[in-house]
Amino acid sequence: MDVEPELLHQRVAVVTGGAGAIGIEVCRMLLKAGMQVVLTARSQARAEEGVAALAGQEDQRIIARALDVTDADDVLAFIRGVEQTQGRVDVLINNAGVPPRGHGLSDMGDEELDLAMGTHFHGPLRLIRAVLPLMRAQGYGRIVNVSSSLGQLSQMGARWPAYRLSKAALNALTAVVAAEVAGSDILVNAVCPGWCRTPLGGPEAPRSAAEGAADIVWAAMLPDGGPSGHFFRDRQIRPW
Residue 5 and residue 71: Cα distance in Å, rounded? Predict the structure, then answer.
């Protein structure tokens, strides 16, 4: 993508779940591209650990912030704070997640479903609604919802029901928001990073965290007129 370095330095990216393995790599790549990054985690201490993991890049372009995406008041206060300190939000990456549990629907508890939906759907929905006015005012925005092939209706299965249902809802949200902002320079997509070697994915996964993050950052830096309202894996449009 051909973007003037001065313009990239003005852009602000918010990354939820920024202290996880993929989140850290996403932040690292955005910093390398020249953006300002707000790395969030559920606690301030965890967010600061994420910043510390970016050795050599802890400068004024990265900020650690606590954010509980399942808390509506916390989301609003967080976005107000970013608006006051940074003045804008150009990129929103909804990466915060909870792990799937490998049982069937009959064994799924309400608390498990509430946590998955709160993290993967309600949180991104609140954040998107909060940042859209900023993106519309500045005439630019990129929203990336980090999803999973487990949320694809085209290959829906029985195991991991709470995770599947919440990611399917996130995919639907992606399509709805993309339709809402169609015709503007706000691009909204879902990305599956694939099975990655993370504490969640385990050591046998075929992809590194950096490889998964690269596809997310690719979607976060799509050029003007780029695709919107799609589900991507390996930078290819896949069926919902």
Answer: 35
Residue 207 structure tokens: 């992809």
Q: What is the pLDDT of residues 213-235, one digit of tens each?
A: 999 999 999 999 999 999 999 99
DSSP 197: E
40 and 78 in contact (C-beta within 8 Å)? yes
Catalytic sites, residue numbers: 163
Residue 18: which residues within 8 A CB-CB, separation 6 or more?
Answer: 24, 26, 27, 37, 38, 39, 40, 41, 47, 50, 95
- The predicted-structure confidence for 74-114, as pLDDT tens digits, reads as follows 999 999 999 999 999 999 999 999 999 999 999 999 999 99
Beta strands 236-238 and 196-197: pairing type?
A: unpaired
Q: What is the C-alpha to C-alpha distance for residues 145 and 90, in angstroms, rounded to an integer?
A: 14
Dihedral over alpha carbons 201, 204, 205, 210 (to 10 degrees): 90
Judged by DSSP in three states, 41 sits in strand
Cα–Cα nearest to 217, from 57, 35, 53, 51: 35
Q: Which among 74, 75, 53, 72 has a CA at the least distance from the CA of 62?
A: 53
User: What does the alpha-carbon distance between residue 40 and residue 96 come to, in Å, rounded to a whole number?
Assistant: 9
Beta bridge partners of 14: 38, 92
Global confidence as pTM: 0.94
DSSP class of residue 204 equals T
